[in-house]
Design goal:
Blueprint: H1 9-17, E1 28-30, E2 40-41, E3 49-52, E4 68-71, E5 82-90, E6 98-107, E7 114-120, E8 128-129, E9 156-157, E10 168-173, E11 183-190, E12 199-209, E13 216-221, E14 228-233, E15 240-247, E16 257-259, E17 265-267, E18 275-283, E19 293-299, E20 318-324, E21 335-336, E22 345-350, E23 370-375, E24 383-387, E25 391-392, E26 396-408, E27 415-421, E28 429-435, E29 447-452, E30 460-468, E31 478-489, E32 496-501, E33 508-513, E34 520-527, E35 538-540, E36 544-547, E37 555-563, E38 572-578, E39 584-587, E40 594-598, E41 607-612, E42 618-624, E43 634-639, E44 644-648, E45 659-661, E46 666-672, E47 690-696, E48 703-710, E49 717-726, E50 733-737, E51 744-746, E52 750-758, E53 765-769, E54 776-778, E55 798-799, E56 812-815, E57 837-842, E58 848-856, E59 862-868, E60 876-881, E61 885-887, E62 896-903, E63 912-919, E64 930-932, E65 939-943, E66 964-969, E67 974-984, E68 992-1000, E69 1035-1039, E70 1045-1053, E71 1058-1065, E72 1071-1077, E73 1100-1103, E74 1108-1111, E75 1119-1124, E76 1127-1128, E77 1136-1139, E78 1143-1151, E79 1156-1167, ...
Protein name: Gliding motility-associated C-terminal domain-containing protein
Domain Fibronectin type-III: 214-306, 494-583
Keywords: Repeat, Signal
């Protein structure tokens, strides 16, 4: 058993600092590629520092090579970190002006977490910063880092736009360290307890002597539009410098301007409104130049715009032929992007309506008139365009000038372009550009601008004011007013101020203002978009006209031009207007019903009247529609005689299916609405309007209902069941629809199915009375958007992800599109869960926060409920909320719960959303307020709250979203001043608001007794507008504003008093809240009780240890509670805890005096020490390239390395170096290609649950030599049974394949396919003979001592046929008894030639000597066999038998004597039925032959010539195939 004490390493580290100097030669350079170079992690304060290859998302490389120091090579640093890396000792005694240069990278929470470089000359007893905030050359960028790196607040910090964005080179003089013999440097990193990121890194450290010191104290002053003064302090005795003034962002210059002026240097001829950067370096003559110091940035001022100069007329006087003061909204005839005042567009607004920090406070003339102003409320960059009406310069002479006033106040003023064109559609040419602000206050005077237009005399022009904000904030409101064009000449000026009044559905009044004394005009009223008239208009002698014959609900445009007698002005306009809706309708009973649509507005009471053509009563049927419902909106239906037929809200606002019949021939309909929700306003319930039908009551309507049937099995389509429940008074009906021409006849009630129809189309079903055109009913639009979601019921619930922290990094998507009623009864929420979908999750915390976020596609009133139960068909509701977020009651960790999401209304929704389930914050309610017992001058820093709905109005706060409740307890009495600040992760401010209550004697009951109003919440003012109002009751202070910092004061606070502080996050953006006391040490200053803290030290990874003692360091603690993974450890109440199992241990400590508590957690991980078993080397052979490079399957070694260890409990990885294996970096993938021969591979085996527990081993990769040869040698075997298949002895063939290679080193195997041979799978079993026909198979020669070392070759298996011999079967072979003349037996060779074989003849089993041919002379009967053997290596042999029989007797003449004596004159064979006779001489020459022979031969040739005396041989075929050969003698003597 081992006991580990955390304080032991300190003595060792201190001893290092006391060692002799380690670095004595310079310049010094360390890039950490060969190790740490003496830079080591402080054992007492290691933090998360590590040396190695950075592999995180942002910090992902070293500055040089592969190694760098980083706070966590692969992830984030830890909370409340104090990590230090200490250098070796530097002897700088030989250096006079040492300087340091190092590469740094920072990506940490701005102003909360950061890094600093410090030095010590007393062995580490005290430390001083190297350099200071604001020093040049990429030195520290902040001086208020809350994480206190190195015990102070300066350093490098930030991320995103405030991060370094990669490696940067930071350089600074080591002031005060020259001549010191024992200098230690350290890089310290500190973080607070809130947000973590990847942190910081440093690399490539160099220390060197500076022979030419850098200048310092560089300042820039007296900046004008084209000049600036630059001053600096010499770095030494130098009197000459180089200065570079260049565009901002250029970077370190290659050279500069030489100067001897440094106090100041006058920079001249600069460009107005331009960002510059300044670099300065010393010129030390023979000692060269110093490093550049910079950049120092400044921006030149704008050049004042040109004022109006007026025009000089050679003849006559000038006139202002165009004037626009923007008193109309929208201005008459102006086009462009519009004037609606949305973010990024122009607005017509009055004086003093400007936003805070931008825009004009007054009109251009100091009055209150309106003007044109850009709205930049949302950091806008959109380009807004305002294009004037046509301005006629065709009669202009001598000169013309455009003049206007403009106001450009605000830090985010963008770019204004004043453009000109000959057409309203452009193209435009820019006449004037202004960039940035001009005025410095909102009440500063407007500035007039004059632009010469002489180049456009004789033309019709259009002016454009084009502007876009800078996009850096909301202070970008540019304003324009009093636009005029002055010119010389005689002009016919178009009228102005065209207005349209008294607009009805069919008529309107138009009027205008004459500008030239004219008394006649022409006007044109045409549909909007028609464009400028090309012909004459209607003439009038008054500046007004009455227009009639217009169409209802139609947009028109008005053009007017002056008739100056001899000429016309150009057309003025267009001015647009829209006629009103139609309210009176005639219903023609001979034609049929009138289908109508009503989209009502706020505070609406419009009456729509319908009158029948023949005096019949009218039926009014609401097909579909919804209003807000009582007590807000009502449907009023009345008869023409004033009788109210209906005045109600339908079914909670739903009007579908309501039907009314008039008493007289007239019926009216109207919606009486309030000022909030309506169809015109696009509000959630009512945006679809009301669809209704009015028909003459000449018949009884049919009745039908409609049911959507999804047809998802057949595609994205649906069907509609039309249920005809009554035909009315019709005898037949017709069902039709608006999508296709299909009709369905109906003669009886029942269900009729129509379709299919595609998703996302509106189908209107019409049911018509075939006998009366007035009896028609229409369905409301029927649509199916999609198939129902898979989680449409609880048993199909989707498993939702649960965040293990308070973020929504993990979400589960969901949709209500086409969701149906699951059938689970409605819960405690008021909404209708008829479109519910279900999710299930496993609780990770006792209290979870459930949020429905990213709602899109409708989504009004999206509710959710929480259920529990083991049976998905019988779940029990725990709670329900009509908000988008809820905090659960206490749950059981590990149990499964269900979330039901649905829309609260009755209408189908197209809502999509994301479901976020995360750990719920504790202090979102007063009862869980967190203690704040910070020491004087300290700060409470905590992550803010997001995603918590606004509970109610509280005090002066009209809303209190994302609340955090805090307790402040007073220590010393007196004045308490507190600052509350809220920032996002990049350090940007977030709106923060607060309420402070108190004082209270104790917390018990305090939350129940808070004054929430004055006396009501709406009565409480903001302290910024009523600074003397508070306190009111126990409300001490209350403030709301858009600022990110708020301050509060507690006067005459008394010791022990308790105050409750509510802080809200209005923006709902994630960030950090900081609460700190700002007054300390004054005579009348009080303070707040010291905050209790506890520190359990860093997490511990223990390999092979049995126990560990955790010590809770907390000087203010009175009692302790210990927990393991959130579960209390009973009986453990002391300040230390001995543990023996892996767990996250938490201690909660209590300060009874402060009534406060603190907690800390530490993860203790116990691991099993693994054994890395040795494994043999991996040996393979080289391929044909002979490059000694091959692929190795490293994973084949894993089983051997593990041995008996469980592969599921240990990880095995392979590495190039022992250092990589020990640090678990650079794991190799398999197969792996070696880089040397032999090559050592290092193996790491680690506990899978405690990866720090590891062991290593190694083995070699060896390429033994070349790949073995596989020789292709065919095998030939005789076909013993003539079936083409025989047996092959493959095992005996190994020697032929090896061809002299060792059968000990190599093995031979055989395969039927090349693929099997290459893969080494499916080998032929050679322990038995292999049966095969002739084919090609494959041999594989594989090394027995090397890995993956083999060759393959094809070779042939040849089934050699036996010799095929046959005898004729046409006759029998016969001999005569005691024959003296032999017969011939002739064998026929069927598959060979006689030269290819050896032949042996047998008679009755005995060899006939001397016979080796295919013919055999036979005298005796018997069994004759011919044995034929191929002469090749196979010697395939076969035996064919032929039986020779002996006749009982033979009477064939043995000779003839053809002498004419009548005796033996002829060869008489007449008794043998000879079919053929052939006679040969002794030379074997055929001399005579005859078919069907009897006795015709008398010793003559075929030609009739006499043959000489002698012996002749004959062959005869007789008796249907018998054959006989013998001799015959010719004797010619008498």
């Amino acid at each position: 058993m081992k006991k580990i004490l955390l304080s032991l390493p300190f003595l060792f580290v201190f001893s290092i600092w006391c060692a002799d100097a380690q670095i004595t030669s310079y310049p010094y350079l360390e890039d950490f590629e060969s190790g740490d170079g003496g830079w080591v992690v402080d054992a007492a304060n290691p933090g998360s520092w590590a040396l190695g290859t950075p592999a995180a998302t942002v910090i992902n490389s070293a500055d040089s090579g592969t190694n760098a120091w980083v706070t966590n090579l692969t992830g984030d640093y830890v909370a409340n970190e104090n990590g230090i890396v200490t250098s070796p000792v530097f002897d700088l005694s030989t250096l006079v002006a040492p300087s340091i240069e190092m590469s740094v990278w920072w990506n940490s929470e701005f102003s909360w977490d950061g890094m600093v470089l410090q030095s010590s000359i007393d062995g580490g007893t005290s430390w001083q910063n190297v350099g200071a905030f604001g020093d040049p050359n990429n030195w520290y960028n902040d001086n208020s880092i809350a994480g206190n790196p190195g015990g102070q607040q300066e350093g490098w910090t930030g991320r995103g736009t405030s991060g370094s964005g990669g490696w940067v080179i930071a350089r600074h003089a080591l002031n005060g360290l020259g001549g010191q013999a024992n200098v230690i440097l350290r890089v310290a990193f500190g973080s607070d307890g809130s947000v973590q990121d990847e942190g910081v890194a440093f690399d490539t450290v160099s220390i060197f002597e500076v022979s030419c010191p850098e200048p310092s104290g560089i300042t820039i002053a007296a900046v004008t539009e084209n000049s600036a003064e630059v001053s600096w302090t010499p770095g030494g005795a130098e009197t000459t410098w180089e200065i570079a003034i260049q565009n901002a962002g250029t970077g370190i210059p290659s050279g500069g301007t030489t100067t001897m002026n440094n106090n100041p240097y006058d920079a001249m001829s600069l460009t107005p409104s331009t960002a510059y950067e300044v670099y300065v370096r010393s010129d030390c003559g023979a000692d060269g130049f110093s490093n550049w110091v910079g950049p120092f940035n400044f921006t030149t001022l704008n050049t004042p715009p040109p004022p109006p100069l007026g025009v000089n007329c050679v003849t006559g006087t000038s006139s202002f032929i165009f004037t626009e003061n923007f008193d109309q909204d929208p201005p008459a005839g102006w086009t462009g992007t519009g004037f609606d005042g949305t973010d990024g567009n122009w607005d017509i607004t009055g004086a003093g309506a400007n936003s805070f920090g931008t825009g004009p406070a007054n009109a251009y003339d100091g009055g209150t008139g309106s003007h044109l102003e850009y709205e930049a409320s949302g950091n806008a960059t959109d380009i807004a365009s305002a294009i004037s009406p046509a301005i006629d310069l065709t009669s202009a002479v001598d000169g013309a000038e455009l003049s206007f006033f403009f106001h450009a106040f605000g830090e985010d003023i963008g770019t204004l372009n004043v453009n000109i064109a000959n057409d309203a559609a452009g193209p435009f040419t820019t006449l004037f550009t202004w960039v940035g602000d001009l005025q410095i206050t909102d009440d500063e005077a407007w500035v007039p601008v004059g632009i010469n237009l002489d180049a456009y005399l004789g033309q019709v022009i259009y002016l454009e004011f084009s502007y876009g904000g800078a996009g850096s904030g909301f202070e970008g409101d540019m304003a324009i007013d009093f636009v005029r064009v002055e010119s010389c000449g005689s002009f016919c000026i178009p009228p102005s101020a065209i207005t349209v009044t008294d607009i009805t559905g069919t008529s309107a009044e138009i009027s205008w203002t004459p500008n030239n004394g004219e008394t006649s005009w022409e006007y044109v009223v045409v549909p909007a978009g028609t464009g400028e008239p090309t012909g004459p208009g209607t003439t009038t002698s008054t500046p007004s006209a009455s227009i009639s014959g217009l169409d209802f609900e139609t947009e028109y445009e008005v053009w007017v031009r002056a008739d100056c007698g001899s000429s016309f002005s150009i057309w003025g306009g267009p001015v647009t207007f829209t006629t009103t809706i139609q309210t009176n309708f005639d219903v023609d009973c001979a034609v049929g019903p009138v289908d109508s649509f009503l989209c009502y507005g706020n505070n609406d009471s419009e009456i729509f009247t319908y009158t029948s053509s023949d005096g019949s009563p009218l039926n009014l049927t609401i097909n579909t529609g919804e209003i807000e419902g009582a007590p807000f909106d009502f449907l009023l239906v009345s008869d023409g005689n004033g009788t109210v037929l209906y005045n109600d809200e339908g079914n909670d606002g739903v009007l579908d299916g309501l039907t009314f019949q008039s008493i007289t021939d007239t019926i009216t309909i109207q919606i009486l609405s309030d000022g909030s929700v309506s169809c015109e306003s696009g509000s959630f319930c009512c945006s679809d309007g009301i669809d209704y039908t009015v028909a003459c009551a000449t018949c009884i309507n049919p009745v039908a209902t409609y049911q959507v049937i999804d047809d998802c099995d057949n595609g994205d389509q649906f069907l509609i069941d039309v249920n005809i429940t009554s035909l009315g008074d019709a005898t037949s009906l017709t069902i039709s629809n608006n999508i296709d021409a299909t009709t369905v006849p109906v003669t009886a009630t029942g269900v009729y199915q129509i379709g299919p129809f595609p998703f996302l189309v509106d189908v209107v079903v019409t049911v018509s009375n075939d006998q009366d055109v007035n009896c028609v009913i229409n369905s409301s639009p029927i649509q199916l958007l999609a198939c129902p979601p898979e989680n449409d019921n609880p048993c199909g619930a989707i498993v939702a992800v649960v965040n293990d922290d308070q973020s929504c990094d993990l979400v589960t998507p969901g949709t209500l599109v086409e969701a149906t009623d699951s059938g689970v009864p409605a819960g405690s929420c008021a909404g209708n869960p008829d479109d519910d979908v279900w999710f299930q999750f496993t609780a990770l915390n006792e209290v979870q926060l459930i949020s429905v976020i990213n709602i899109a596609g409708g989504g009004f009133n999206t509710d959710h409920a929480l259920y529990e139960g083991d049976d998905c068909n019988n779940l029990v509701e725990i709670e329900c909320t009509d908000g988008v977020a809820s905090v659960t009651p206490q749950l059981v960790v590990g149990n499964t719960y269900y979330v039901r999401v649905f829309s609260g209304g009755n209408n189908p929704e197209t809502t999509t959303f994301d479901l976020c389930i995360k750990e719920a914050p504790t202090n979102i309610i007063c009862e869980n307020a967190e203690n704040f017992c910070a020491e004087a001058g300290g700060a409470l820093t905590t992550s803010n709250i997001i995603g918590i709905p606004d509970p109610t109005d509280i005090a002066c706060l009209g809303s209190a979203p994302n609340p955090t409740w805090n307790i402040i307890q007073i220590g010393e009495p007196g004045l308490i001043e507190i600052e509350i600040a809220q920032t996002d992760e990049d350090g940007n401010g977030l709106d923060v608001d607060f309420v402070l209550w108190g004082p209270f004697d104790d917390l018990e009951g305090a939350c129940d007794n808070l004054d929430l109003g004055c006396p009501d919440p709406n009565d409480c003012p903001n302290n910024t507008t009523s600074p003397d109002f508070y306190p009111f009751g126990n409300i001490v202070d209350c403030s709301y504003s858009f600022v990110s910092t708020e301050n509060l004061t507690i006067d005459n606070a008394q010791t022990g008093e308790i105050y409750l502080l509510l802080v809200t996050n209005f923006s709902d953006d994630p960030g950090t809240i900081s609460i700190s006391q700002t007054n300390t040490g004054g005579e009348n200053d009080g303070d707040i009780t010291a905050e209790i803290e506890v520190d359990l030290g860093p997490d511990q990874d223990l390999c092979g240890f049995d126990t560990f003692e955790i010590i809770a360091e907390s000087p203010f603690a009175d009692t302790w509670e210990w927990y393991c993974d959130g579960f209390i450890i009973e009986g453990e109440t002391s300040s230390s805890l001995v543990v023996s199992e892996t767990c996250t241990y938490t201690v909660i400590v209590y300060d009874e005096q402060c009534d406060a508590q603190a907690q800390d957690s530490v993860t203790i991980t116990f691991g099993d020490e693994p054994v890395a078993n040795s494994v043999p080397d991996m040996i393979t052979c080289d391929d044909i390239s002979a490059d000694e490079i091959e692929d190795f399957d490293l994973e084949t070694q894993t089983a051997g390395i593990l041995g008996a260890q469980d592969a599921t409990e240990f990880n095995v990885s392979y590495h190039l170096t022992l250092a990589d294996a020990q640090s678990n970096v650079g794991a190799l993938s398999s197969p792996y290609t070696n880089i040397s021969n032999p090559q050592t591979i290092f193996v790491r085996i680690e506990d899978a649950n405690a990866t720090f527990c590891s062991a290593t081993t190694s083995f070699n990769l060896i390429i033994s030599g070349p790949t073995p040869d596989a020789t292709s040698v065919p095998i030939e075997v005789c076909d013993d049974d003539t079936d083409g298949v025989t047996l092959f002895d493959l095992a005996a063939h190994d020697a032929n394949i090896l061809n002299g290679q060792s059968d000990v080193d190599f093995s031979v195997s055989y395969y039927e396919t090349e693929a099997d041979a290459e893969a080494g799978t499916g080998a032929i079993d050679t322990s038995v003979l292999y049966s095969s026909s002739s084919q090609t198979i494959y041999a594989r020669v594989e090394s027995n001592i090397a890995f993956d070392c083999y060759s393959t070759t094809p070779f042939d298996l040849i089934v050699k046929p036996l010799p095929s011999t046959s005898f004729t079967t046409d006759f029998d072979y016969e001999v005569c008894p005691n024959a003296t003349v032999p017969i011939l037996i002739t064998a026929t060779a069927n598959n060979y030639t006689e030269s290819e074989v050896s032949i042996v003849w047998y008679r009755d089993g005995g060899v006939i000597a001397g016979e080796s041919g295919l013919t055999l002379s036979v005298l005796e009967a018997g069994l004759y066999e011919i044995e034929v053997t191929f002469n090749d290596s196979t010697m395939c042999s076969s035996i064919t038998a032929q039986t020779v029989i002996e006749l009982e007797s033979c009477v064939i003449p043995q000779g003839i004597s053809p002498n004419g004596d009548g005796m033996n004159d002829v060869f008489d064979l007449s008794s043998y039925d000879v079919s053929k006779l052939e006679i040969f001489n002794r030379n074997g020459t055929l001399v005579y032959s005859k078919n069907n022979y009897t006795n015709e031969w008398y010793g003559q040739t075929n030609d009739g010539d006499e043959l000489p005396v002698g012996t002749y041989f004959y062959t005869m075929e007789y008796e249907d195939g018998k054959r006989r050969s013998a001799w015959v003698y010719i004797q010619r003597l008498n």
